[in-house]
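Students often ask why inverse folding is considered easier than folding. One informal answer: many sequences map to the same fold, so there is more than one right answer. In these notes we will look at a single instance of the problem. The structure comes first.
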């Protein structure tokens, strides 16, 4: 399991320096670790391990995990645990399509003029 990884511990310790509420710091550290794939998709996130890892109580961990579940990076399955959401191939393809569309729309006005192209 990736929860005990040093990079995850370091992520939260770095966020401690910002002085934000503890649950916000945990949220940001976990979100960043998930987005950077330092915690594997499908990994079980155990509150007890996270509490031990960072030396904090369950309340900020629970609040951060609930918020992450609302935002989508984690799934809370009653009687089973909290898991990092798996990456869905359809979502990856859709994201790539949206990105290509936005990039094409952004450069379209510049196609007609040499000056506009040089400005890019």
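Output (designed amino acids):
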């Amino acid at each position: 399991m990736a929860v005990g990884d040093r990079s995850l511990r370091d992520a939260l310790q770095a966020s401690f320096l910002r002085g934000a509420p503890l649950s916000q710091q945990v949220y940001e550290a976990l979100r960043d670790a998930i987005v950077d794939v330092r915690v594997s998709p499908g990994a079980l996130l155990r509150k007890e391990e996270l509490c031990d890892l960072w030396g904090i109580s369950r309340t900020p961990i629970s609040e951060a995990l609930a918020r992450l579940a609302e935002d989508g990076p984690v799934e809370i399955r009653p009687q089973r645990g909290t898991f990092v959401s798996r990456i869905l191939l359809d979502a990856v393809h859709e994201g790539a399509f949206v990105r290509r569309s936005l990039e094409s729309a952004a450069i379209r006005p510049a196609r007609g003029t040499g000056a506009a192209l040089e400005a890019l």
